[in-house]
Design goal:
The complex is a heterotrimer of chains A (319), B (365) and C (295).
Chain A: H1 6-16, H2 20-27, H3 29-56, E1 59-60, E2 71-72, H4 76-83, H5 85-115, H6 123-135, H7 138-148, H8 155-162, H9 179-203, H10 208-216, H11 221-232, H12 234-249, H13 253-258, H14 270-280, H15 284-316
Antiparallel strand pairs in A: 1-2
Chain B: E1 4-13, E2 16-26, E3 31-35, H1 42-50, E4 57-62, E5 65-66, E6 77-80, H2 92-102, H3 107-120, H4 136-148, E7 154-158, H5 166-183, E8 187-191, H6 194-200, E9 203-208, E10 211-216, H7 218-223, H8 228-233, E11 240-249, E12 252-256, E13 262-264, H9 267-275, E14 280-285, E15 290-293, E16 301-310, E17 315-321, E18 324-330, E19 341-346, E20 352-355
Parallel strand pairs in B: 3-8, 3-9, 6-7, 7-8
Antiparallel strand pairs in B: 1-2, 1-4, 4-5, 9-10, 11-12, 11-14, 12-13, 14-20, 15-19, 16-17, 16-19, 17-18
Chain C: H1 2-6, H2 12-47, H3 51-54, H4 69-75, H5 80-116, H6 122-131, H7 137-150, H8 157-182, H9 185-193, H10 198-209, H11 211-227, H12 230-235, H13 244-254, H14 259-293
Helix pairs in contact in C: 2-14, 4-5, 4-14, 5-8, 5-11, 5-13, 8-11, 8-14, 9-10, 11-14, 13-14
The chains are: A mainly alpha (319), B alpha+beta (365), C mainly alpha (295).
């Protein structure tokens, strides 16, 4: 649909043979007005930073944010990163963090959605309570759990001692071996509600007729889940998992506030490490190179995200 | 009220021609049905008249104005949509008032007109309801009412009955017809149901593939379809079309079938066939013009009954003839069983003959 | 899993197996409820302890002498802690509200255009907007900081509002587009024939119908802005401008042992968004169902 009508359009169509694309864009100029604000904001806040980060990643930069005396060093920043042992430590932390958080949060959230699908007394209240961790600030969540994990006065330690399972309260987040799993528990606590909401929304779209048809065909509850419910939710599941994965890959607040990446890098993930490089040690060039590497990884995830979304689009029938 | 003229109307989407040089005139106060299968361009044509989509070329005249470049709101038209398009958040009263508010009528006048329309359509007690609280028929009536309050020069209706159940559809059909007669309104009515067009319209425009096929009164279209498409589209059950070969036997013009039989043509029909440029002829016959015999009579053709459908006052028989399915109606007093041998006699006066290559109706002169 | 069980038949033999599903569902829900709720309950219990009572081992499961002292301190405009907290609260409210209003203003027309019009590059632009979700915040920190300094927005709330706008927009546009996809185009056509201009048809007919989507968008933007930490942490350095997450973090990194105060602050920081979300959550779930998941 366009706002142009009749003769004006026909007139334009005649001219469009000369420079088709530009004319076409021109004839839709009113449509672009609607998206222009969004595009402008996006360009300022995305395109420029991306460009700048890439540029900076090829320079050696002095400390401070003046960045006037930077020296072009080619790929030095990248080779330095790949040679550093911290890089591999942080990468493996990030992988564990992202995979464990994403998969467990998704499974928990999906299970909650299924368990809450059927109506029962108190379902609304239960659902509301379960969503709260996702709504509250990650800063608040970090402090709550930091207090729960506290090595002297933490409640979990006290319970373990009280039950005779430990002699003294364990050091959950001050020990290299337990810090990452402990933080993952916090992260899942905050994120499974999102998977729950998405999957609840998805479950509402599973056609009842199909479930009934499967029942008539003699499928039991488990078979109906495998053959009807889950296949129907494949798209939603993909989008949910990808959104979770990206969010986890990009998470910052929980490790930053709870441990600051310590002890001895055991809970540093990419983002916290980059932040420390940039704003802690002011090594802008290296931090930028890290960002570019990260960016490429995320873009490859993004490719699947767009594929999953455009799968939705096609089913919708709209182009 | 006003007349509507479409002149060489064209609408293309890229290389696809949705509406192809359609020209027709709707007289003042006339009820015209645009009819055709889905995708034939009828709804696109209506949307062009409404101004909802821009035309590619051609002219649209409403009253004495060329409205090609006018916004829908300035064309002085009203439209009833297939899904009624009632504003779900507004009450019936506000739905009816909306077009008047948009025209900045004084409040008292709006109130008077809305109540008048509600009275005419017998829905005064529904005024405070929301559309979702209404039945399909009531929603339909509100949609009509919203068109009515405006007192427009042309009513456009886009399949207004197709969302109703069968019984309600018959009832609303007569109500819309009555509505047309009382208001002497100019109506352009789009439908895929030829029965609606035949029963309601003064003239019907049969469309296919973006082209206007035939534009005439239902009786004329029914009696003299211009081509095989119109012949098979209008009338229910559909006209049977049997592909045959023209030849001469003993100096007489006959149509022969690959099955071996031949049918001798009356002089009038023979003249039509003689004018044809091809030997491939398609015989068209409506169910009521074929007589069914249980034994051979002169001029009859042997066939085998395939299905038998009693409907009460008539029984429909389908039979295979030269590879085509033929519909025959007969009184229920004759008993025919599936697979029974029967003989068919065609009424030469009411028989249609088509050119097998161009699919156009053959003419005697 | 009891979802499937719920639609099962009434047969005796099946009943038993179905109850198995139902019971495992219930046990699971109890477990997940404990996981979700216990940390929050412990936050509340700690927040009504005195500083001395909190630092005990084994802990007091319920405080011997419950006290609202921490809350009083935070909300008292007479002392410096209360002044800071209330100022942080006000800053967060301002930044979040402004972000929300701007998000809606920008997202509504964009989503409408993506839903209704087919202009060249539409799909590309749509996915480009959605891709914003994929970028890690940290990529933008340095260049945005420099950009903000160049346009004079460092140490202003404007820098945060502009940045937050881009967080919320992709999902907002996506959700709203789903809503507009579900509003029949005939409604607008009817309105235009009834005498409305295109713009009037949009404002008078389409906007009210997409209200649930707009509300969901607004909640999402508001919560995102309210909880954001990393940009606020980087862009703002003056104490009187800090938003709650950063303010609290700054404050308690200097008072590391005041856990009741920290828990009380965490609680009060959470109240506005939790209340907002719980009141309006049905719109959010509906928006996800209609906008994001259905098609």
């Amino acid at each position: 649909m366009t706002i142009l009508t009749g003769k004006a359009e026909a007139h334009r169509r005649l001219q469009s043979d000369k420079s088709g694309m530009l004319r076409k864009i021109w004839s839709h100029r009113a449509d672009y007005a609607y998206v222009l604000p969004a595009i402008v904001v996006m360009l300022i806040v995305i395109a420029y930073p991306v460009y700048y980060t890439i540029e900076l990643s090829f320079f050696n930069t002095p400390p401070g944010l003046q960045l006037r005396d930077k020296i072009f060093t080619g790929l030095d920043n990248y080779t330095a990163i790949l040679k550093s042992p911290v890089f591999w430590k942080v990468t493996s932390n990030t992988l564990i963090w992202t995979l464990a958080s994403t998969l467990i949060a998704f499974v928990l959230g999906f299970a909650c959605a299924l368990a809450l699908h059927r109506d029962f007394a108190g379902r609304g209240i239960l659902r509301a309570i379960l969503i709260i961790p996702w709504v509250i600030s990650a800063v608040a969540a970090s402090y709550i759990w930091k207090w729960i994990y506290h090595s002297d006065f933490g409640i979990i330690g006290a319970v373990l001692v009280g039950l005779g399972l430990a002699d003294r309260p364990p050091n959950f987040i001050d020990s290299v071996s337990t810090v990452l799993p402990s933080l993952i528990v916090v992260n899942i606590w905050r994120e499974f509600p999102f998977a729950m909401i998405m999957m609840m929304a998805g479950l509402q779209t599973v056609p009842d007729q199909l479930l009934r048809a499967a029942k008539v065909d003699g499928a039991n509850a488990w078979q109906r889940f495998c053959h009807v419910t889950f296949p129907h939710l494949r798209n939603v599941s993909t989008v949910t998992i990808l959104l979770l994965a990206v969010a986890n890959f990009n998470s910052f607040i929980i490790p930053w506030i709870m441990t600051g990446g310590g002890p001895s890098n055991a809970s540093h993930i990419w983002i916290t490490h980059i932040y420390e490089l940039a704003f802690g040690r002011q090594r802008w060039g290296v931090a930028s190179a890290y960002s570019v590497l990260l960016f490429m990884i995320v873009m490859s995830l993004g490719y699947f995200y767009v594929r999953a979304l455009s799968g939705n689009e096609r089913k919708d029938g709209s182009v | 009220m006003a007349h509507v003229v479409l002149k060489d109307l064209v609408k293309t989407y890229g290389s696809f021609k949705a509406v192809n040089n359609v020209s027709l005139t709707v007289n003042d106060g006339e009820f015209v049905a645009l009819v055709g299968p889905s995708g034939c361009g009828k709804t696109t044509t209506l949307n062009l008249v409404a101004g909802l989509i821009p035309i590619t070329s051609g002219d649209i005249v409403i009253g004495d104005r060329v409205v090609n470049d006018l916004d829908p709101k300035d064309r002085d038209i009203a439209m009833v949509f297939q899904n009624y398009a009632l504003y779900p958040q507004k009450s019936v009263y506000k739905n009816l008032a909306f077009p008047l508010q948009m025209r900045r009528l004084p409040k008292e006048e709006i109130d008077r007109k809305v109540r008048e329309a509600a009275r005419v359509l017998d829905m005064t007690e529904l005024l405070e309801r929301k559309p979702r609280e209404l039945s399909g028929g009531q929603q339909q009536r509100v949609a009509l009412g919203r068109a009515l309050v405006r007192d427009p020069s042309v009513f456009l209706m886009d399949e207004p009955l197709s969302n109703l159940d069968a019984k309600l559809r018959v009832q609303m059909r007569s109500e819309i017809k009555r509505f047309h007669q009382d208001l002497k309104a100019t109506i352009i009515y789009v439908t895929h149901d030829q029965l609606e067009a035949v029963t309601m319209a003064d003239r019907m425009a049969v469309m296919n593939g973006g082209y206007l096929q035939q534009y005439d009164s239902p009786a004329q279209v029914f009696a003299h379809p211009v081509n095989m498409f119109v012949a098979s589209f209008v009338g229910s059950p559909a006209m049977s079309l049997v592909p045959l070969e023209a030849s001469t036997a003993n100096g007489k013009s006959v149509l022969t079938s690959a099955e071996g039989w031949s049918l001798e043509l009356s002089p009038h029909n023979a003249q039509k066939v003689a004018k044809a440029k091809t030997r491939k002829i398609v015989l068209g016959a409506r169910h009521s013009t074929i007589k069914l015999h249980k034994s051979a009579v002169p001029g009859s053709i042997p066939a085998k009954a395939y299905t038998v459908e009693p409907t009460g006052d008539v029984t429909f028989v389908q039979a295979f003839l030269s590879g085509a399915l033929v519909n025959i109606s007969m009184p229920p007093t004759i008993a025919v069983a599936p697979d029974e041998q029967i003989w068919l006699e065609f009424d030469q006066e009411r028989m249609h003959l088509f050119d097998g290559e161009t699919e156009m109706a053959l003419k005697a002169h | 899993m009891s979802a499937i069980a719920g639609t099962a038949s009434r047969g005796q033999a099946r009943r038993r197996r179905i109850d198995g599903w139902r019971w495992s569902g219930r046990i699971f829900l109890v477990f997940i409820l404990l996981y979700t709720a216990l940390p929050m309950i412990w936050m509340l219990i700690t927040s009504i302890k005195s500083g001395f009572a909190a630092m005990q081992f084994p802990p007091q499961w319920w405080p011997d002498q419950p006290t609202l002292a921490s809350y009083q301190k935070l909300l008292d405009p007479q002392n410096s802690v209360g002044q800071d907290f209330l100022r942080f609260f006000w800053n967060s409210l301002f930044v979040s509200t402004a972000t929300t209003i701007l998000s809606v203003i920008v997202a509504v027309p964009a989503a409408y255009a993506f839903s209704r019009f087919t202009f060249p590059g539409r799909n590309f632009l749509f996915f480009a907007v959605l891709l914003r979700n994929m970028f890690p915040a940290v990529i933008f920190l340095v260049p945005l900081f420099i950009l903000m300094r160049a346009i004079g927005l460092v140490n202003t709330h404007g820098s945060l509002i502009l940045t937050y706008l881009t967080f919320g927009l992709p999902l907002a546009i996506w959700l709203l587009k789903g809503f507009y996809d579900n509003i029949p185009v005939q409604l607008e056509q009817a309105a235009r024939i009834d005498g409305a201009t295109r713009f009037q048809a949009f404002v008078l007919i389409v906007m009210p119908l997409s209200a649930p989507g707009i509300i969901a968008t607004a909640i999402y933007s508001f919560i995102g802005a309210w909880n954001e930490y990393i940009y606020a942490y980087t862009f703002l350095s003056k104490n009187e401008q800090l938003t709650l997450p950063v303010g609290i973090q700054r404050f308690f990194s200097e008072n590391t042992t005041d856990f009741p105060g920290l828990m009380a602050a965490s609680f009060m920081m959470s109240v506005p968004v939790v209340v907002l979300f719980l009141v309006l959550q049905r719109y959010f779930v509906r928006a996800l169902t209609e906008g994001a998941v259905k098609h």
